[in-house]
Specification:
Its EC number is 2.4.1.1. By secondary structure, the chain is an alpha/beta fold. The strands form six sheets. Strands 1, 4, 7, 8, 9, 10, 11, 12, 15 and 16 form a ten-stranded mixed sheet that branches. A seven-stranded antiparallel sheet has the order 23-24-27-26-25-28-29, with no helix packed on it. It has a six-stranded parallel sheet with strand order 19-18-17-20-21-22, sandwiched between helices. The mean pLDDT is 95. Bound molecules: pyridoxal-5'-phosphate (PLP).
Length: 856
């Protein structure tokens, strides 16, 4: 029978155990092993079956058991100790508190998804898990950050696989009352509501949930409240669920509603308003428009408000795959961006922010990434290679500039070690290396023997094998009306066989089925009598992506063959809970994307942190970290004629490596059966690679390279009654008006009649400024090695100085003279040119205004 209403009744925990409720109420438990042990002790079996979620667990524990523990002085003391530890963690000074007073006061971090724990399924994949890890590392480092997202009633979706291999989606509804969330309220107890004005006099309302992620507050907006019409209640029904209009509503809510929720939260909690706003991908871009509207209400023009907003905004782009970028039909956006939604903002100005460069403004789709880049003075990609790719991909926004000049930097993603390191490795580090900091432990130390290490790795593999059997048996029952799974299911995988993992979302570029290019070859590798290999595979396809579902189906059908099914398994419903056991259980983590489409990839990092070696295409993070001891590089067949040939070549290389490098090394054993060389590599990976992969490294970089400069810039443009913003806006308008006439009229050179190394090239450039002051521009000689294709390689730049004219009349009209010299310090082909760019002390990059005049 279907209930007409559902709610969750929270457990009554005896007073002497109130510490348990406090510990369950802060998501720090999700990465704090001692807290988990405290809960597990209550009822280990129930702890596992409630998926290690303390809130759900406390709701189900037998009250008699709680009464028993409440009377057990030792347990009560243990719980109090953990409570004290949590309180200390929340209040003590940490890394950020040593930075001094010019550090940002508050960073608001906006993301469409957050993956913090399997118990709060508000993520679809890498983007969300990265956001979760960002919050956790910010908490550990003491960064004053506020997370902002949406609360999706059904999360992403739960996956099952039909007997013929087709992905099925289910949308189990979450009850926020059964989750570690609380409503944001005013002192009088009333709940805060955020409201957005919609067309046709409609309004969208949202309540605001708060989650405590260690020291970080995460705000999640939820439209499923009675104040909304039925239609609007479902705006936050699921993550990446609906099409254009539904998605647009979600993003308007995330950006505009999110900015309003942050304001309400900081006012209520007495915290400083954010000076830095970070958009994790373009989905939250509308937050910039909301902030512009606020500044317009203070009396600023759009252009001035834009400067105030840009100064403190950071934008991170996450994908070079065009389908991964949100684009809306212009007419649709136009309908929503009204004066009632954003008072004072001229819709034409707002719409112009999303116009794709080079397209007709009247018809261009509204591109959220492009808007993000226009609203943020600082932007980054998520690995070095992705930074390069993004500078090329978005280069048209800065026409006339070489891609090296495009103001998009990179910060390579990281993963949160305390979340992603298996407790067995933690226990080993504590017992033999004397530290609980697995990320910075000396794993190569002689204090730990290879045999002991290998024993722990085997336990981790066994744990995965058992989990896989459990999952497959449960999936079988589900698919066969509750029937018990056949015997072979209890025999799948083997804890002593080389285990290769492959799990991720299933967009085409990740090439789930590359391993099936030559099925016979793969079969031979799997069933090799001396050196067998087993595969554990998982991944969800977007519900609307039938192509992805076909890939899953092909794989599932391959894995169903009786002679293979114990060696290759597809585990349905990949999520963080599965991931926690999957990475530690694997010896090798496989990644074979179509280079360079994997922006970073983080699963390989998590595998490395759990003693796996990577076998990967040189893409994303691996392109900058690959090393002999850390795994193997699958060569990219970039020169292949077509994609079929490319796949075949790369798959052949994959088989070759697996068979002749990976498996041979793995099965090379000493007298005790320990693969000494393999273990040495794994321990080197843990000792020297893992510390580079941590989210702590990443968040420190964000603070130092982006947040701090952004906060300083925000202060600079706002100083003295926003004078900087006014100056910059006026400067931009003046320079733009003159720019069509600005040009390098003529360049004279001297000193290089027969050039030798050490000679000086003397330059005199005449520049038409069209009334701009000489200091409004920078005139530079751009030089380097000249190449046969008419480009300059290894570009360097030297400013030329304006000749101070003594003759007032000639200063006012006619070209201005700029002079300077370049020392020829290298032999070989040399080339140079002269360029003019706008110059202002508040511009961060010479390319910022997208204006340049180059000598021709
Ligand atoms: C880490 C992780 C991902 C992202 O993996 P990529 O390698 O970046 O594709 C996706 N899903 C889950 C559950 C993860 O833990």
């Amino acid at each position: 029978m279907k209930p007409i209403r559902k709610f969750t009744v929270r457990a009554v925990v005896p007073g002497s155990l109130s510490a348990l409720e406090e510990l369950a109420g802060n998501l720090r438990w999700s990465w704090h092993e001692p807290t988990k042990r405290l809960f597990e002790h209550i009822d280990p079996e129930l702890w596992r079956s409630s998926r290690r979620d303390p809130v759900a667990f406390l709701g189900e524990v037998d009250p008699a058991r709680l009464d028993e523990l409440a009377a057990d002085g030792r347990y009560v003391e243990w719980a109090e100790r953990e409570r004290h530890g949590l309180r200390e963690y929340l209040s003590e000074p940490r890394w950020f508190q040593s930075l001094g007073t010019d550090a940002p006061s508050t960073v608001a971090y906006f993301s469409p998804e957050f993956g913090i724990t399997a118990a709060l399924p508000q993520y679809s994949g890498g983007l969300g898990i990265l956001a979760g890890d960002h919050l956790k590392a910010a908490s550990d480092l003491g960064v004053p950050l506020i997370g902002v997202g949406l609360f999706y009633k059904a999360g992403y979706f739960a996956q099952s696989i039909s007997p013929d291999g087709w992905q099925q989606e289910r949308y189990p509804v979450l009850d926020p009352d059964g989750l570690p969330l609380s409503v944001l309220r005013r002192p009088d107890g009333s709940s805060v509501q955020v409201t957005l004005a919609l067309p046709d006099d409609e309004s969208l309302h949202a309540r605001v949930w708060k989650a405590a992620v260690g020291r970080i507050t995460l705000l999640l907006l939820d439209t499923d409240i009675p104040a909304n019409t039925d239609d609007l209640r479902s705006v936050t029904d699921r993550l990446y669920g609906g099409g254009g209009e539904h998605r647009l509503l979600q993003e308007l809510l995330l950006g505009i509603g999110g900015a309003r929720a942050v304001r309400a939260f900081t006012e209520l909690s007495g915290r400083p308003a954010p000076d830095v706003f970070h958009m994790n991908e373009g989905h939250a871009g509308f937050l910039g428009l909301e902030r512009i509207a606020t500044h317009i209400a203070e009396g600023h023009s759009f252009a001035e408000a834009l400067q105030l907003v840009r100064a403190g905004t950071v934008f991170t782009t996450h994908t070079p795959v065009p389908a991964g970028i949100d684009r809306f039909e212009r007419g649709l956006v136009e309908r929503y961006l009204t004066g009632s939604l954003l008072p004072g903002v001229d819709p034409a100005d707002a719409l112009a922010l999303g116009v794709e460069p080079g397209s007709d403004p009247a018809t261009s789709p509204f591109n959220m990434a492009v808007m993000g880049l226009r609203l943020a003075q600082r932007a980054n990609g998520v690995s070095k290679l992705h930074g390069q790719v993004s500078r090329r991909m978005f280069g048209d926004l800065w026409p006339g500039f070489d891609s090296e000049d495009v103001p998009i930097t990179s910060i390579t993603n990281g993963v949160h070690a305390p979340t992603w390191t298996d407790p067995a490795l933690l226990g080993l580090a504590e017992a033999t290396l004397g530290t609980a900091d697995t990320e910075h432990a000396d794993w190569a130390s002689g204090a730990l023997s290879a045999a002991e290490f290998w024993g722990v790795k085997r336990r981790m593999r066994l744990q995965l094998v058992e989990d896989a059997r459990r999952r497959l048996a449960a999936a079988w029952s589900d698919q066969h009306a509750g029937a018990q799974a056949p015997l072979w299911v209890s025999r799948v995988l083997d804890p002593d066989t080389l285990t290769v993992g492959f799990a991720r979302r299933v967009p085409t570029y990740k090439r789930l089925t590359l391993m099936l290019s030559d099925p016979e070859r793969l079969k031979a590798i799997l069933t090799n009598a001396e050196r067998p290999v087993q595969f554990v595979i998982a991944g969800k396809s977007h519900p609307a992506d039938d192509e992805g579902k076909r890939l899953i189906q092909r794989l599932v059908q391959f894995a169903q063959q009786p002679e293979l099914r114990e060696r290759i398994v597809f585990l349905p419903d990949y999520d963080m809970g599965m991931a926690e056991l999957l990475y530690p259980g694997c010896d090798v983590w496989l990644n074979n994307p179509l280079r360079p489409l994997e922006a970073c990839g983080t699963s390989g990092m998590k595998a490395a942190m759990n003693g796996a070696l990577n076998l990967s295409i040189l893409d994303g993070w691996w392109a900058e970290f690959a090393g002999e001891d850390y795994g193997w590089v699958i060569p990219s067949a970039d020169a292949a004629g077509d994609s079929g040939e490319r796949d075949a070549l790369e798959a052949a290389a994959l088989y070759e490596l697996l068979e002749h490098r990976v498996a041979t090394r793995y099965y090379e054993r000493d007298a005790d059966g320990v693969p000494l060389e393999w273990v040495r590599r794994v321990r080197r990976t843990l000792a020297t690679l893992a510390p580079e992969l941590g989210a702590d490294r990443m968040v420190k970089q964000y603070v130092e390279e982006l947040y701090r400069p952004a906060a300083e810039q925000a202060a600079r443009v706002a100083a003295d009654g926003d004078r900087g913003a006014r100056d910059l806006a006026a400067f931009g308008a003046r320079v733009r008006a003159s720019w069509p006439k600005v040009q390098v009229v003529h360049v004279e050179s001297g000193g290089v009649e027969s050039p030798h190394v050490g000679d000086e090239l003397r330059l005199r450039a005449y520049v038409e400024l069209d009334g701009l002051a000489p200091d409004d521009v920078a005139v530079e000689v751009v030089y380097g090695r000249s190449r046969s294709d008419e480009s300059i390689e290894g570009v360097r730049r030297t400013p030329l100085e304006a000749e101070r004219s003594t003759d007032a009349a000639s200063a006012a009209s006619g070209p201005r003279l700029y002079t300077g010299t370049v020392v020829l310090d290298r032999a070989g082909a040399f080339g140079y040119t002269v360029r003019v760019v706008p110059r202002h002390p508040l511009l961060v990059s010479p390319a910022e205004l997208g204006l340049v005049a180059v000598a021709d």
